[in-house]
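Structure, all two chains, one model.
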Amino acid sequence: MGNKWKVRFHTFHKYSALLQELVKRDIKLKYRRSVLGYLWSVLNPLLIMIVLTVVFSSMFQKNIENYPVYLLTGRVLFDFMRNATQSGLKSVTNNAALLKKTYIPKYIFTLSKATSTMVDTVFSLGAFFIVMIATRTTFHWTLVYLPVIILQVYVFSLGVSFLLAALQVMFHDMEYIYHAIITAWMYMTPLFYPLENLPNLLQLIIKSVNPMYYYVASFRDITLAGNMPGIRLIIGGWLWGFAALAIGVFVFQKKKDQFILYL
Amino acid sequence: MPQNIIDVDHLSIRFNLGNIKVDNLKEFTIRRIKHELTFQEFLALKDVDLHVQRGEAWGLIGTNGSGKSTLLKAITGILKPYKGTIKVRGRIAPMIELGAGFDQELTARENIFLNGAVLGYSRKFMEEHFDEIVEFAELQRFLDSPIKNYSSGMKARLGFAVATMVAPEILICDEVLSVGDASFRKRCNARMERMLSGGTTLLYVSHDINSVVKLCDHVLWLDHGEVVMQGDPSVVCSAYLERQDKVYSYARKKKEDREIVESTKKFDYLVVGAGLFGSVFADQAKKAGKSAVVIDRRDHIGGNIYTERIDGIDVHRYGAHIFHTSDARIWRYINRYCKFNRFVNSPVARTGSELYNLPFNMNTFSKMWGVFTPEEAQAKIDEQKSEYIAGRLEERRKAGEHILMPDELEALAAARAAEAAAAAGTDAAAGAGAATADLLKAAGLPDNAIVTDEGIFIPQNLEEQAIALVGTDIYEKLVKHYTEKQWGRPCSELPAFIIRRLPLRFTYDNNYFNDPWQGIPVGGYTQIIESMLSGVPVLTGMDYKTFAAKYPGKFRKVIYTGPIDEYFDYQFGHLQYRTVRFETERLLKPNFQGNAVVNYTGPEVPWTRIIEHKWFEYGKDLEGQDIPTTVISREYSEEWKPGMEPYYPVNDDANSKLYEKYLELAKEKKNVTFAGRLGTYSYYNMDQVILQAWKLAKKELKTHDGAMKEAVAESE
């Protein structure tokens, strides 16, 4: 048993260079493709935020004080999760040509997608801080907790990615099914509306079974309210993250030797 | 002895074909609900062995889909073995397919690092070797443009440069050097040769046989996942090319035949079964100017006489077939199609730690009892027989049975005759002095009754019958266990009629057959069938029902050589057969048992015999060279169940009656003729099959093949 883990660790170490190269590639390609480069990654959320603020702010003005920041906190985290899982879903199938020709631990590709999305998210936080400044939002000390939240979303997204990547290999229509799921998921997460507007029962359901609620609510606590997230949010966030990771890794490990037959 | 760098033992790789086709959830769910999920297995590699020593260069050849790439993938670790083991003791550098490791959007510089990382090299290591790679690939000027703008040759250069930057312990090369311009190929080859001389082990897959012969010192030939041959490159490659030529002409004939069948052409005859009977008939039909189409359910022609060549050995896939005949015309006829050797069937029998010659002859007796003359042998056998019979009679008397004495026989016969005469109202004619056999018959005793001084012995089962014929020693050593293995029951429980004769030969002659002509076609039986069927359209892998449904009205008459009960959908039940099963094995040694056929007559092993196919042709290939390997088939008798390969009809009452019922139905089918071993439910030797086919040809076609006509007339 110990030997098996030793071999695994050794393999991971050997391919960590590849992981770095893959993450670098994703980042480079993302910012190379356009003239505006990095600026685009900041501009994009800003523009969307402006549009949504114009459309929705009057609708929810009563309940929400700082609508632009409220909106952006939700979007930053949800986009992180969505981008990570959607690219993670295809991480194995997109590298079929390579996996068919040479031995590479398959999880490297899934891991690299979640990681590069995280790096990208950190970059785009620039937009978030610009909005905070523009809306004269107070920078609370609780913001130092932000990396923990990002790490939580990372662990969660990674778990979901492993599960999806394995399913996508076997069922090529997973992509479309997941697209429908994530759209529904987005509306079921209080991103641009206040949770309190929903009927009580629905509120309760979202609070208990939507993992993204935990992360978004935590993020809002440390930015808007200026206090640390409640213990329920912290523990719940980690539990969701590790549960997703455990399930994802389990399914991926179980099926990985069969991938080659479907690629 | 140094360890091998690669050891592949009994490797099988399995794919699940059923699953591969269903790759989306929608279909999966639908099929789940409809219970249509198939799990069809497909073995991409079957029991492959490969042992590579450090520094060797192995070429892998075979047609597309033969399993070459699968084997490389298994060695690389991409595919996991289904059965067997793989041990690799060295670092592998896979030569990746062109551009597969590259990202089209990245520049060459970035791709070098990415590709290096794919191969497991660290960034630092890549930086050190960067210049060297760029220099070899000659891409200095384009380092910073995206690789999507590169030509395929440039990509190949880059890929090769990265993969071979350090000499790996094992280099795997799957059809990569076929691109790039001449000068680059030259440099690639030079680099590979340098690596080879530097001790790198190479696994090389290519369809370019010339490059395989040039680069490699060993070659492995795979076909349908199995190793056909391995060894010296020039030998293996030339055998492979020869097979390719043949396959190509087969494929062309197959295509042409299909076109003919699918055209509007109508045939006089549909011959079902491309075995010896069907082929002889089709050949005669062709010569008589009639059109025939031959179909066979199996994927090859020849029926049970089909031979396939493995390592230059003609393997009798459906059991040993030795041609022998006492009809000169049949011998002449078959020799038109092929040259026969002077093979004489002289099997030996092994039992326990002893070995005897077959058939039972003076060599057998001499070894068994140390006797030299036929009289001594005869005396020994007679002594054992009479001792046994006396013992059995004594036992029966004790059990209160009445034993008929020889002197009572005549009286009994007369009495029976009188009874019969009285019943028929004629005079009794059985007189004194009639032969014993006639007396036995007249007395109403079975024809296996034996008259001895102690009384008349009627064997009740196979054991008693056999010992009464050959005595105890021969029975115990050579008959008992063999027969029990054949029938799966003790001899004392088998009916006596199975053995009526056990020929004993009181000469020193090991020739199994009594026929004056005997031999094996040099190069196997399949070529005979091929030449009989040349010019006749043949569809293999096609069964009668499918064909008749697909092409109704395509043929005037049917010659059906398949199982008669199957034709009538088993409406009265299945006809039974005795069947045998073969376990064929290729061995890496030149000689396994020193004889084509060795019977195992003892209880120690479950098989009844082992055939070592190469000795049918004296262990030589077609060029007269000794063959370094051998192929053996262990033969097992099996109880036949519907769906198994039918071999020998069972000629007991129940089956004969059943056959008669089918025959009645067959008579009503005016345009279908049932023929051959399965069509008439009777066992024929090959020469008899030919004669039967001639008879049918004469009746159907009115052909005038001189020798044939004469032979047929005589036999009728």
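Residues 360-404+445-498 of chain B form one domain.
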